Fold Haloacid dehalogenase-like hydrolase.
Amino acid sequence: MNTRIIRKNWIFTLFIFGLACQAPEAQKEVKSDEPKLPSWNEGENKNAILDFVEKTTTVGSSDFVPEKDRIAVFDNDGCLWSEQPFYFQLAYAIDYVKKEAPNHPEWNDSPVLKSAIDGDINGILSKGEHGIIEVVMASHTGMTAEEFSQNVKDWLATAKHPETGMAYNQMIYQPMVELLSYLRANGFKTFIVSGGGIDFLRVWAEEAYGIPPYQVIGSSIKAQYEEVDGKKAIVKTPELNFIDDKEGKPVGIHQHIGMRPIIAAGNSDGDYQMLEYTTQGSGPRLGILIHHTDSEREFAYDSLSPIGNLKKGLIDGPSLGWVIVDMAKDWSQVYPK
């Protein structure tokens, strides 16, 4: 075989191989026969989400978005799992303080920590944000990162919600888990952007949502690298580092992701700025707000609730083109079976 023929064969082989290995956005999307978002009832809101994904992932669409730019961010409390009657991370903090109180007699000198020891949630909440922070600091600091992670795992394995009797990490929203999976199947990278603690979330988010620790953004306390029992470790210290809420969420997205998302989902006015930042970008954008309207299967609350307060988003959202999900109407199922 002469060199010219060999060269042509190699070029042909490389051409075929190149077609097989081209970037995902240059290939025709493989459509699945499985129902999309099965726990979402048919209607305008489900269609809005499906249509957005369809147009942004279809090659040749005027709204096509390359896979590298398909970023979706989600709040956690009240968006991916329940948050009533108070944040579940606070439930962990209270249980930890109760358990460790015999080793810390000085905690009885603090009205807030004494309330936690007594299980008096109103006593904690009466001090507002400062009360919550004091309990969280007592339960999250003075230990290595590994010790904290193990404490959270142990708690999740045994703790039950006071009203539902369910394990806290079973109270995730099946429709949102389906949405996360559907987005990833269509080339989106999914991130958690939560006002909750980043270290708390990183312990269990991957198992619950399929979101790895490095795609979790949250509030944080400071830490330092020091020797513990003869080995170097990360030790959590009692000082706030970053509050990932309200105006902090776009900042956290910028610092951790470095790109403006094209999808943002939340459930409270604490998420307003995240949805605003996302949907004010150029090109196709989607904002989603979960409105808790289902008192039978979950909890019904919005503008009057001290937890997950939603008022401004309900007022402004429709005019901004945000999808307002009515939990009672739009979801056929709330928690996984």
